[in-house]
Amino acid sequence: AALNLEKQHLWDTMGRLNQYIYVASALDAQLSAKIAQAEATDPERARALREDVLFYVRQKHQDLLTQLAVSIQGYLAIDIIIKNNVELIKGVDRATTTTVAALRTAVLVAQALNNQKLVLDQISALNTTTSNMIASTSKMLREQSVTIQQQAA
User: How far apart are the two ends of the chain, measured CA to CA in Å?
Assistant: First the structure.
């Protein structure tokens, strides 16, 4: 908003400067014509007009042209900054969208991997329990078989 306001201010300033430049050019042309007329009849007056008036009119005209160039450069620079800001906003939006999608995927994958680990841990515990039961049953069977054979003998 501030950049757009400054851009509008520069636009208004450039309009006024163009008006002032037009007036300075017209004044220069009229003074030059008067000085040319005075050269023939009153060279001293012509010299005084040229040195005391025309010089300052031309100097002011040059100052106005310089100020206009500075204003145009500022206007164009602000325009580029505004366009760059729009592109940066688009880039941030795209990056945010991509980052959110990546985070969502990462969370889903992490949850799935965690679930798989829980299942693997449960399967491992079940296998261990089953092995222990088989070993215990085998031991009991062996001990009982030995006891039965000893009693039978």
Answer: 107
> Could you tell me the two tokens for 146?
């030995």
Residue 17, number of CB atoms within 10 A of its CB = 20
The total of structural domains in the chain comes to 1
DSSP symbol at 153: -
Residue 65 lies in a domain: yes
Q: Find, among 134, 31, 21, 121, the residue nearest to 67 by Cα.
A: 21
- State the Cα–Cα distance between residues 106 and 93, nearest whole angstrom: 20
DSSP assignment, residue 22? Answer: H
Q: Is residue 148 in some structural domain?
A: no
The identity of residue 21, as a single letter, is I
pTM: 0.63
pLDDT of residue 1: 81
Question: Are 56 and 71 within 8 A, CB to CB?
Answer: no
Task: Output the CA–CA distances (angstroms, integers) from residue 77 to 7, 8, 73, 81, 82, in the order listed.
Answer: 9, 13, 6, 6, 9
**pLDDT value, residue 50:** 94
Query: Nearest 5°: phi and psi at 143?
Result: -65, -40
137 falls within a domain: no
Instruction: Answer yes or no: is 147 within a domain.
Output: no
Domain extent for 29: 2-109
